[in-house]
Amino acid sequence: MGVYVVTGSASGMGRAVAEQLRAAGHTVIGVDIGEAEVVADLSTPQGRKSAVEKVLEAAEGRLDGAVLAAGLGPAPGPERPRLIAEVNYFGVVDLLTGWRSALEAAGNAKVVVFSSNSTTTTPAVPGRTVKAFLSGDADKAVRSVRLFGKVAPSIIYAASKIAVSRWVRRTAVRTEWAGVGIRLNALAPGAIMTPLLEKQLSTPSEAKAIRSFPVPVGGFGDARQLAAWAVFMLSDAADFLCGSVVFVDGGSDAYFRADDW
Ligand code: NAD
């Protein structure tokens, strides 16, 4: 049985992943701003540093895997773009960078990062915002979406997920990751019924946009099903999976990009 860290373990898909891993007999170290083994605010550098250190201590320096599910969805408010940037991008990259040696120590560790199908279905995401993330500049990323006004949270949300997916693909193939047995992949869900989506559906303008969005199979995804995909991506069956972004979104990505191959 293994030792896994799961961020966002207090709610939604992260919570479902933690439940499924525990039910299979694994040890889970949950990280969340809500109830968790390690309580940390991933929107600040100090919170991320503390999460890195406390998890390394709890895991005794060896992690069989990590699932990075903590995230914030688009919502109104002037502070929202900053929070999305900090949690969705730096709350993945800083943590995984800090845990890399512990993942290497396991010999065959697997990592699943929660991306989103907003990466390929959101129009007009500025390349400079994605670049700002990848160069580690949160201020610049936030500044670059100001002119979008009310839709800035949606734009920076998509940009944070594009950047984190690109970081996954660039990093996955490096010798310090793939070369030492760490399999790093991303899971890109569509609209999944969790508290995050429920909050979005409670805003009339957002609800309208979400409900009219094309989903070929119809309806919303189920958090437990997405968690099962993440658990599968942590299993031996995923030994040959490296740097992939797996879309589980009812067909929306295919609907918009069928010919992008
Ligand atoms: P959720 O809101 O149910 O859970 C997210 C968790 O992240 C919560 O437990 C929350 O406390 C934690 N979190 C938020 N801010 C934090 C902070 N500052 N520090 C520490 N923890 C913090 O959301 P979910 O729908 O389960 O989403 C999981 C992941 O999947 C997110 O990265 C989200 O962006 C992504 N995603 C969700 C959907 C969807 O439709 N639900 C679609 C695509 C991608």
UniProtKB/TrEMBL annotation:
Oxidoreductase found in the keyword field: yes
The record ties this protein, via Gene3D superfamilies, to: NAD(P)-binding Rossmann-like Domain
Give the superkingdom in one word. Bacteria
The question of whether Oxidoreductase is a record keyword is answered with yes
Q: Name one Pfam family in it.
A: adh_short
State which residue ranges cross the membrane.
Answer: none
InterPro entries in UniProt: NAD(P)-bd_dom_sf, SDR_fam
Name the UniProt key words of this record, in alphabetical order.
Answer: Oxidoreductase
Q: Which PANTHER family match?
A: BENZIL REDUCTASE, CHAIN DEHYDROGENASE, PUTATIVE (AFU_ORTHOLOGUE AFUA_4G08710)-RELATED
* Family as reported in the entry's similarity comment: Belongs to the short-chain dehydrogenases/reductases (SDR) family.
Tell me what this protein is called: NAD(P)-dependent dehydrogenase, short-chain alcohol dehydrogenase family
> What organism is listed for this UniProt entry?
Rhodococcus rhodochrous J3
